[in-house]
Design a protein that fits this description.
16 helices, nucleic acid binding, four-stranded antiparallel β-sheet, alpha+beta, 5 domains, 39% helix, Nucleotidyltransferase, domain 5
Length: 499
């Protein structure tokens, strides 16, 4: 067997061409003359100097049987099983020889049965691919990432969701189409129960509601073949990249999300980032190609498909809706707007039309009549969940205007003084304005705020606080005298009395 490297073979042939003698070339190349003559003879015969000739093997006569076993098992049979069969047929070689022969036959069989791919050339305005991915946990609760990929422009959309129900799917599809600015001819997805309810003789039976949604938007909902991710590899890659960037892992060191709204903002930021940079295949930013592809998309219906989104409601002036004789609150900005309510498990999901399309705006645990579900975060203008407005000073006279212009501390002092029933309030306000002229409005405003917190509204309290602020280096926490804070000595020293 010829075992010289390509460099050694080149030097041997070069030495022979120089000397025209095998003995002399062997001395120059540092090898045996017979080796020189072998490589020269192979070159003269038109053969590759590096090509080796396999010697006859004991297993060669059993190769047809090995090929039969490999083909019958579709390339899955183990080499030890093949060796047992061959030994029974009279093979006397080792199992190592059998393993090598089986590996060669399997490689040849797979090459002959390898799946053949034809490059897919998507057309503008034809295909939109959808898929779901497991999202990060928010407040200990699982979320889902709805991922969409417009095939020709490579434009990607990622929307966060709580679940993969039919209503959520239609809502995310509506929001995606409105972001794209049009509807393609086909929507391709896999086979979840919200899309394919059954398979008969390998034929997918579509969910009637998803078919109705496709007719509403003017597109055909298609599904890929089971266990065939290559048919929608673009959206599969989108799910993989989105999860790698948005889900906190040890690889990206991303912090946990504090709220569902924070996750939504991060999804929007991620979409802007990936759609603004050039794509590896097209060398163009997807947002630029989307502008050209919109000419091939047909218009979006003005009203969303709401048959699968639940019952329609109108948000009242108090930011609540009535569902099942129970009041549920909604976030600010939807008073008078139409929303859709659907029951998901033991929760009520409320969906509304936003600037980017249909979006789930809130969720509530289902309740019973007489037990409304009101979220304090939906009413930021009512701090601490108070149902009534806190009193807000409205100055009318010049004296009131001068006092309230001192700052927030003056506002707080007036509100607390009114609630405490303090007398001679106007004279004390005038005294504060005089002190502000002499000592500065900032110091007096700070003193008024501290007086309001400590509940000190006497005539001499404000000057006393001002003196303390002027002399003290730092102001600590004020302590209001009550039952918890007392100067009365304790009785701990009497615990051991009489023992």
């Amino acid at each position: 067997m010829l075992t010289k490297s390509a460099r050694d073979v080149m030097e041997i042939l070069e030495a022979f061409d120089l000397t025209r003698c095998a003995f002399s070339a062997a001395q120059l190349a540092g090898c045996d003359p017979k080796t020189v003559q072998k490589y020269v003879d192979r070159r003269e015969a038109g053969l590759s100097p590096q090509e080796t000739v396999r010697r006859p093997r004991l297993i060669d006569q059993f190769l047809p049987k090995i090929e039969e076993l490999v083909d019958h098992s579709k390339g899955r049979i183990r080499a030890d099983v093949v060796h047992q069969r061959l030994v029974a047929m009279g093979f006397t070689g080792t199992d190592r020889t059998t393993r090598r022969a089986v590996a060669e036959v399997k490689a040849a069989w797979k090459d002959g049965h390898r799946r053949r791919y034809r490059p897919w050339m998507p057309e503008p305005g034809m295909w939109l691919q959808l898929d779901w991915g497991e999202g990060p946990k928010v407040a200990g609760r699982r979320t889902q990432l709805f991922c969409a990929w417009l095939s020709w422009s490579r434009f990607r959309v990622v929307i966060r969701a709580w679940d993969q129900t039919l209503g959520t799917l239609v809502a995310c599809l509506d929001a995606t189409l409105r972001r794209l600015g049009g509807v393609p001819a086909y929507v391709l997805t896999d086979n979840p129960r919200t899309v394919t309810i059954d398979r008969v003789a390998g034929i997918a039976i579509r969910h009637p509601d998803i078919v109705a949604a496709g007719k509403h938007y003017g597109c055909t909902v298609a599904t890929c073949e089971p266990f065939d991710p290559e048919s929608k590899g673009g959206v599969e890659a989108t799910v993989k990249i989105a999860k790698a960037d948005l889900v906190p892992t040890t690889a990206n060191l991303r912090a946990e999300y504090g709220s569902f709204a924070e996750l939504a903002a991060e999804c929007d930021r991620w979409c802007e980032q990936v759609n603004a940079r050039p794509h590896r295949s097209t060398k163009t930013a997807p947002v630029l190609r989307l502008t050209a592809e919109r000419e091939h998309l047909h218009p979006i219906p003005a009203a969303p498909h709401h048959a699968a989104l639940g019952d329609e409601r109108v948000v009242d002036d108090d930011q609540t809706i009535s569902f099942g004789a129970v009041r549920y609150s909604t976030p600010p900005g939807f008073v008078g707007a139409r929303v859709w309510c659907r029951v998901t498990g033991d929760e009520l999901a409320v969906t509304a039309m936003t600037e980017t399309g249909l979006e789930e705006i809130c969720r509530h645990q289902l309740s019973t009549p007489g037990n409304p579900r009101i979220v304090d975060a939906h009413y930021p203008h009512h701090p601490d969940g108070r149902g009534i407005h806190r009193p807000k000073p409205k100055p009318r006279t010049s004296q009131e205007i001068a006092f309230l212009n001192l700052g927030e501390g003056a506002h707080r002092w007036l509100v607390e003084a009114g609630a405490a029933g303090i007398t001679r309030v106007r004279s004390k306000m005038a005294r504060a304005v005089e002190l502000a002229v002499a000592l500065g409005a900032e110091a007096v405003d700070e003193a008024l705020g501290m007086a309001a917190i400590a509940g000190r509204f006497a005539d001499d309290d404000l000057p006393s606080i001002l003196d303390h602020l002027a002399s003290a280096a730092a102001v600590g926490d004020l302590v209001v005298a009550d039952e918890k804070h007392s100067v009365q000595p304790g009785t701990n020293s009497w615990k051991g009395f009489g023992q």
